[in-house]
């Protein structure tokens, strides 16, 4: 009896809800806290009322099953979360823990003890968490430390293209992880069981049912039980496939040419370094081929950049087709390509590859119904197998570019091989280029003038201005010593041409004081000047600034420049003539211009090339005579160049040419020294008389 009283007292004073029910679920007794937890008035939890009477209708079957399983001896205890409906109508969540008691209060035996605890707050938190989990934009999995999935959210289902039911039907991370990533992920799971509270991260691939690979960034956190033991893992899974693809695209863009897809200069340098290392190890040779399409600019200028891009894309494909799979092709400039090949038995194999590239390029292609054909110039540098000399990618590219320059200079559509001699010549040219720019700034250029003479009277009618350079170390230099280098820089030639025109205008004042107001001075114009958009405008400005009249200045340009130029050159010449300047075609007879073309040109003089004049003494007057007759028919003057002897003057007078220049008549000289010797003038007058031209 004392024990029973003690048990009743313990139940009444327990700090939690405690009650007893029989095997049918009817209340036997309960403390005040139990009544409060289920929303009943004190003293009302007694038979014949039962536990199930206050349980929410949707949860009764679950609670009834638990009671029956204890009553039937199927288990000794059970814990259930269920809802109770209070007398006030309020619903609360209660954790109900049931277990058998061998001796209940007041001697009743057996009974089922019920521990009742209000868990509404916990359930609210859990519901919020479930909502957050369900709606989270990042895929989330609750799983056991062994990887078995307990709960998943909508984002993960969408990521893998599977339903929640499919993923929770015994699915483990093993089933969805890429085989190559499983060990890393499970190692992270294992390490997460340590005492460190920091979440772990790993990048891994998941495999969708359709075989699609999903790159993910996983963050793993451990949730522990109140007793500190591992409960479950929360794995947050972010799909980073798009980000990685974009990063890969950026890497690809950083290493490849966007137009052709070929390697760019950055990747090319790396490939050259790799080939260099293999050459040292393998004992086989390597080569770098620097390729430049000849006259590609004309395609862009005449047909547009779209056609130019299509042309380059097809060119890239053709070059790749004739090379080995192990070779690298890169586009390093507008129309510049570089080929890197190693594993060559002999360095000479590089020349065979250069020939193949040249043949691949030099085939006609049709773009937008326009047939196009171009050649390529190639610079080749080779490295012997086993050569341990330090050759950086930058050095090899520089040397190949040097050889390319030589191929261009030698006529294009060919290849040239780099040599040390070639390097020395290139260094010399670069030094000369720098010195030329300094010379323009320092006004180190001057003009020598060669007289143009009336062959019948010996009178000076004009002068050709010839450029000279006072070099600080080499003395006075003529055009053959530097002009070919200057021609390689169009902007420099335009600047130099303006300087020459300005000097000629100043010298003209001196020449007219010495020889009369009728004389003129002729300056040579390069193709770069004629192709410059403001050529006529520049000429007009210089004439005005120097106070010179257009009639006192002639410009000379070679026949080859006119043949190669487009219609804009003719327009420029017309503008120049409108200023009063006269135009002469220099070296006429060497440029293959037709009579019909000549009739369209706004020119005033034809200058017979010195090569034809040199052959006059050997009966070679047919071509000069034809030129004179053609000029007469077009009302043009003729001037013979390179006259070296009186006998040549005799022939020229006989075919009707009245003007000439050359060393016999007067060599080039400074403006204050140029002259025609009196005895030469006398010889000309005497010869003219024999042709019946005396006094003309």
How would you characterize this protein structure?
There is one protein chain. This protein has 696 residues and is α+β, with helices and mostly antiparallel strands. 42% of the residues lie in helices and 24% in strands. It has an eight-stranded mixed barrel. Strands 2-1-5-4-3 form a five-stranded antiparallel β-sheet, sandwiched between helices. Strands 7-6-10-9-8 form a five-stranded antiparallel β-sheet, sandwiched between helices. Helix 11 runs antiparallel to helix 12, helix 17 runs parallel beside helix 19 and helix 25 crosses helix 26. The longest helix has 26 residues. The mean pLDDT is 88.
Give the mean pLDDT: 88
Helix content: 40-55%
Please state the structural category.
Answer: alpha+beta
Number of strands: 27
Kindly report the spatial arrangement of strands forming the biggest sheet: 18-19-21-22-23-24-25-26
Identify the overall geometry: rod-shaped
The largest sheet, given as strand count, sense and whether it forms a barrel, is:
8 strands, mixed, barrel
Number of helices, where a helix is a run of at least 4 consecutive DSSP H or I residues: 26
Low-confidence sequence ranges: none
Measured by DSSP, the beta-strand proportion falls in 15-25%
**CA distance, first residue to last residue:** 166 Å
- The gyration radius over C-alpha positions equals 50 Å
Write the layout of secondary structure elements.
Layout lengths: L1 H12 L3 E5 L5 E4 L1 H7 L21 H12 L5 E9 L5 E11 L9 E8 L1 H16 L3 E5 L5 E4 L1 H7 L3 H4 L5 H4 L5 H11 L7 E8 L5 E12 L5 E10 L1 H15 L9 H18 L2 E9 L3 H7 L1 H17 L6 E4 L4 E9 L4 H13 L3 E3 L2 E3 L3 E8 L9 H17 L5 E3 L2 H22 L3 E10 L5 E12 L3 E3 L5 H4 L3 H26 L4 E5 L2 H4 L4 H12 L6 E6 H6 L2 H12 L3 E7 L6 H6 L4 E4 L1 H5 L7 H12 L3 E4 L5 H10 L3 E2 L8 E2 L7 H13 L6
Parallel strand pairs: 16-17, 19-21, 21-22, 22-23, 23-24, 24-25, 25-26
Antiparallel strand pairs: 1-2, 1-5, 3-4, 4-5, 6-7, 6-10, 8-9, 9-10, 11-13, 11-16, 12-13, 14-15, 18-19, 18-26, 18-27, 19-20
Helix pairs in contact: 11-12, 17-19, 19-21, 25-26
